[in-house]
Amino acid sequence: MAVDYGPPLEPRGPVPYTPDTKNAPPLRNRKEPITLEYLHEMALKVRNWGKWGPDDEIGTLNYATPEKVAAAAKLVRKGKTFPLAIPLGMDGPQTGNRGRNNPVLLMRHSGADAYSGLRDYSGIRGADDWIVMPLQSGTHWDSLAHIFYIDKMWNGYDCREVYSWGAKKCGIEKTGARASGRGVLLDIPRVKGVAALADGTPVTPEDLDEAIDKQGVKVGTGDFLIVRTGQMQAYQERGTWGTYAGGDAPGLSFETAEWLHKKEVAAVATDTWGCEVRPNDAPGIFQPWHWVVIPNMGLTMGEIFDLKALAEDCADDGVYEFMFVAPSIPVAGAVGAPVQPVAIK
Amino acid sequence: MAVDYGPPLEPRGPVPYTPDTKNAPPLRNRKEPITLEYLHEMALKVRNWGKWGPDDEIGTLNYATPEKVAAAAKLVRKGKTFPLAIPLGMDGPQTGNRGRNNPVLLMRHSGADAYSGLRDYSGIRGADDWIVMPLQSGTHWDSLAHIFYIDKMWNGYDCREVYSWGAKKCGIEKTGARASGRGVLLDIPRVKGVAALADGTPVTPEDLDEAIDKQGVKVGTGDFLIVRTGQMQAYQERGTWGTYAGGDAPGLSFETAEWLHKKEVAAVATDTWGCEVRPNDAPGIFQPWHWVVIPNMGLTMGEIFDLKALAEDCADDGVYEFMFVAPSIPVAGAVGAPVQPVAIK
Amino acid sequence: MAVDYGPPLEPRGPVPYTPDTKNAPPLRNRKEPITLEYLHEMALKVRNWGKWGPDDEIGTLNYATPEKVAAAAKLVRKGKTFPLAIPLGMDGPQTGNRGRNNPVLLMRHSGADAYSGLRDYSGIRGADDWIVMPLQSGTHWDSLAHIFYIDKMWNGYDCREVYSWGAKKCGIEKTGARASGRGVLLDIPRVKGVAALADGTPVTPEDLDEAIDKQGVKVGTGDFLIVRTGQMQAYQERGTWGTYAGGDAPGLSFETAEWLHKKEVAAVATDTWGCEVRPNDAPGIFQPWHWVVIPNMGLTMGEIFDLKALAEDCADDGVYEFMFVAPSIPVAGAVGAPVQPVAIK
Amino acid sequence: MAVDYGPPLEPRGPVPYTPDTKNAPPLRNRKEPITLEYLHEMALKVRNWGKWGPDDEIGTLNYATPEKVAAAAKLVRKGKTFPLAIPLGMDGPQTGNRGRNNPVLLMRHSGADAYSGLRDYSGIRGADDWIVMPLQSGTHWDSLAHIFYIDKMWNGYDCREVYSWGAKKCGIEKTGARASGRGVLLDIPRVKGVAALADGTPVTPEDLDEAIDKQGVKVGTGDFLIVRTGQMQAYQERGTWGTYAGGDAPGLSFETAEWLHKKEVAAVATDTWGCEVRPNDAPGIFQPWHWVVIPNMGLTMGEIFDLKALAEDCADDGVYEFMFVAPSIPVAGAVGAPVQPVAIK
Predict the structure, then answer these.
(1) C219-246 as b/e, with b when 16 or more CB fall inside 10 Å?
(2) Helices (H) and strands (E) in chain C, counts
(3) How far apart are CA C131 and CA D172, in angstroms?
(4) Distance CA B193, CA B188 (A)
(5) Smallest Cα–Cα separation from C223: which of C295, C321, C134?
């Protein structure tokens, strides 16, 4: 077969990544910017490719072994359950930014039809409903197929494993059995004595260590680390979501990647839209920490967690560890999915 | 104000329910049909309206108290987690029947865009996705707003509390904190020594008692009762969903309503599309057991649970009780919602 | 059958309409408010029920006979075609107000998949797409099932003919063959010598007559009357949609209902979100003109028409009449649908 | 910048196309198969790249000039309008094949809410609706962004101009002003004296010439050529869509590409799912004619046109030419879109 279609398109792909550094804002939190070189150095430092075999699709969730789950169950004393998801609806935080709207509920039929006798032909009076939603518009887990490192994803897979028909590797449906274990809340603003961290405030490894120390709790292998910044609660008290979705935010600093890698946590979740501090002083790079932890470390990430009630209870009884069960709904091939996470104390 | 718009429409609403009994098929499982009168008698017998106050929206889930959760956690020994949901995707069981399609995943962007350099302007390479789905198309809980009793719903609320913009009462988002506790599996086909119950086979109170007896497990107040019929597994082994969604099925007999009422279970779930046996020999009435248990008893119901792996493990170790955590995603105003239920042993 | 379900819900339906007049803003354009009584008087005055038989579902579109179409074709001289629809996309005018979002395009697959070789297994390289949209989010026709008069719709049909599964009567799919004829543009701001009418400005019967007179064009039976207010263009020039969708607007005054009735137009369309002036000084009534013209007169209404290019051409050549072809896509049971209307001169 | 990410993925893109010829069925209509080489030869023969300038996005629609529209209007005599679209709804022809479902209408609110008084707070009683649909699930035009030729599209554009956020080039919204002109129906089964062509029957250039001759009509530059096979009507009479969507079908033979090129038609439409004959005896190539006419010739293609009533009228009066107006709804960036085409005689 030797059909000559003429010269191929340039540049030949996979297309190299060239960050746009021209319009970079001034540095905000750092003395030196996060460059592609520094980012790559960190990526290699925390990279777990192959650690759980060449076919692994769940990364650090592997740390959450059955033994960890069994141990976590022993943390349950009061039987008090804290659901950590915000309601999914049109009044959610999304603005259309980065292509995400809020969920839309549409009724297939409703009580009005019942009252009006309009579905009696079906032999029952009831209501039924549909939803249209971006899978990451509310409280959710990112799957390891959510972020690519240039042209590769977790475990070295080709990014093309995620095409328009869904993720053939690392879809969120693979995580179900490993989304439970010991949860630990680090309540940074409470430790700092403020209501909420200001937008743009990095949570550094030192801040995490300080919280561990002051709260008297340990973080170790297989834990689900939940970091509270207070940002969601601040917006809730203001009564508007403002720029919560995709705007500036307090969050994990770039260097926490290494800290989390050493701690061998199973996953991390926060009460912000994107876990990491924004802006992150990385010219031409939207979320440098994401680049490192998702495709390189294989870290599962939870976002938009509502931590108010849990944090208050932890402050009350001084117990910052709990059983944590949070399997997202298993949308086949999805790169993220909504979840109702529960902390059980 | 005395505008005369002319004679009002007839019949005046709320429109009375008149079952179409003309085209009723011959009786299949019963000697006498379930009539509206008998159904109403049962409805009154199991009715829990007011039991948890006039503002209650979650019914029997109230039985699943924190004490029950704490006790359930003590059942965890191996730390083995069983996710019970089927994958959500276009190859699911729905056929369009009763207005339900299978979930459709659509990518906002994908690894193909990344490979092609098409989203580099956003400063990151990643994938994002949307879903369009009937909320009860996969493994799900019905909320108490799902079924009406003539013109009333759970706790005596007006069915019009559920209108086209969603459920103002009894939406699924109200249940989050109470969807955990002790789970008990009753594996009816294993007790009967068959691979699966045939379509149309009723699971009677006697069958449930037999399973309790033979399995050596108790069912009591606040338990999440999970009944396996084997139907899903039979279809899975056949490699096609056939008429699984909305067709004939084995399932709970009408009289189990009273049995469940006495047991004070928190919720019931099965591996079938609709929990109750179909057909149910109730001329002009599609699902008589639904009429009784949802709006009258206030029973939360789980459907399309995949029980294969759990049932095998229970058969292996002879332990049919476990910690059960199953909060559905909190779609505001929804009358049902997908869930990834987990049994932890 | 004598089941006693207890006392029925109150009030018995159909529920009477009781406008909330407590929070009415001060009158803006009128000396006397539009009351329910006055509205009802107008409704009876313009009511066409039965005029085209008891089974009619298209109302005044009946005026657009084949003879009118044949005559309209003779108006074509230059062969110049003016498409009057705005693009359907996420940057449209909707804000979520009244439950309407902007259309969302999602690709089933795309050129990125092609470039990456990911759909070659299908034997072709191509792109395919889905849309999720409120049917009236862009340029559209309302069907006669869109607005009810208390509990009745066009031709006296019960409003319950439009239930959650769609419109059994007067769905937009019924209109296809009758959405063509002679179009006439009345360019009110050009006649008044202003760029655009201010929000809240009523277009009265006198204004319409003035435009007819100054433009030297006639309006008669079966015409498609297109009224330009300049509002859309004003927003387009400002570069933001602002409150275009559902906010204050210039538009047809309440009394134009009678004028349109006498003219026997087939349909009316404007460059605003809702055709009629807003606010319309009708305490407790959102759109009094809609109440009258859609369910009573049976008038088909077009909204969000982009009239800039057409209006400029008409001003240039002084010809304000043209062939008009505008069948909306035939969504079965829909109460409105998008259309790409074309004026051909 | 010299970050070394390690070896790039292989093969480097754009990925070459390698047809799977192993599982090719036996030839059905041809003596020799359509090979990639023959296909490429035809592609070059009919290629119009650059003909309308380097920025053109509508291809052969350019032939439909205003002069052609003006001439077409003179064909209108009776004023009879034939809408050619099938209703858009859940009972449409799609099966999920190639990722296309049928349209789903969901009501935002309905007459049942009105009857029940549930939306009175909004100041009006009405209904509103949403749709979820693949844009090519019903009667539609393909845009020139729908099919790629290896890694290029119409006019030589890079296929990556169509990414997951839509088509930056050749979106359907570009075609509005040029979707009108003279229509010609060639009714092949009527010419052949059969009710419908059998699935798999090619319509050859000779068949088209025969129809032109027997019908006494000409086809020339700028015409909208509408070819009837009778397949849709055959399915309609059978009462089921069967394999209409994506299965075997009668349709245009591969060699008609050259015929259409010489005739300089503006567009072509048929009553089948995909215009061309299926199977088309091209091992490893799903639709070889699509490969040639869309990206190379720049031909706009209409599919799933309902031609029954038009064909009967043409047979009655012997007039096979008419004014044709068919602008699809302008979904921004879409690679196809629904349309209600009208033929006016």
Answers:
(1) beebbbbbbbbbbbbbbeeeeebebbbb
(2) 9, 15
(3) 13
(4) 8
(5) C321
Q: Does B35 contact A at CB distance below 8 Å? A: no
Interface test mutation site (partner C, options A5, A102, A116, max chain C beta carbons within 10 A): A116
Identify the residue whose tokens are 């020594």: B193
Summarised one tens digit per residue, pLDDT across range D110-145 is 999 998 888 888 889 999 999 999 999 999 999 999
HEC-encoded secondary structure of B93-162: CCCCHHHCCCCEEEEEECHHHHHCCCCHHHCCCECEEEEEEECCCCCEEECCCCECECCECHHHCEHHHE
Q: What is the pLDDT of residue A240?
A: 94
- Tokens for C200? 């809240």
pLDDT, tens digit (0-9, with 9 covering 90-100), for C65-107: 999 999 999 999 999 999 999 999 999 999 999 999 999 999 9
Q: Which chains share 3+ C-beta pairs under 8 angstroms with C?
A: A, B, D
- pTM for the whole thing? 0.95
Structure tokens at A265: 């946590």
Q: Shortest CB distance from C163 goes to which of A9, A96, A118? A: A118
User: Residue A332 and residue A329: Cα distance in Å, rounded?
Assistant: 9
Q: How far apart (Å, rounded) are the C-alpha atoms in residues D279 and D286?
A: 8
Find the farthest-apart pair of alpha carbons in chain D and give their distance in angstroms, rounded. 75
Q: Which chain B residues are within 8 Å of C111, Cβ to Cβ?
A: 116
What pLDDT is recorded for position D141?
A: 98
Give the gap in angstroms from C-alpha D231 to the nearest C-alpha of chain A.
30
Instruction: Provide ipTM, 2 decimals.
Output: 0.95
CA–CA separation, B155 and B147 (whole Å): 12
Residue C1: predicted pLDDT: 44
Q: Do the beta carbons of residue D323 and residue D334 sit within 8 Å?
A: no
In chain B, which stretches have pLDDT less than 50? 1, 11-12
Closest chain B residue by Cα to residue D118: B163
Burial class (CB in 10 A: 0-12, 13-18, 19+), B255: middle
Q: Which residues of chain A have pLDDT under 70?
A: 1-3, 5-15
- Residue B7, judged by CB atoms within 10 A of its CB (0-12, 13-18, 19+), counts as exposed
In chain A, residues with a C-beta closer than 8 Å to the C-beta of C109 are 163-165
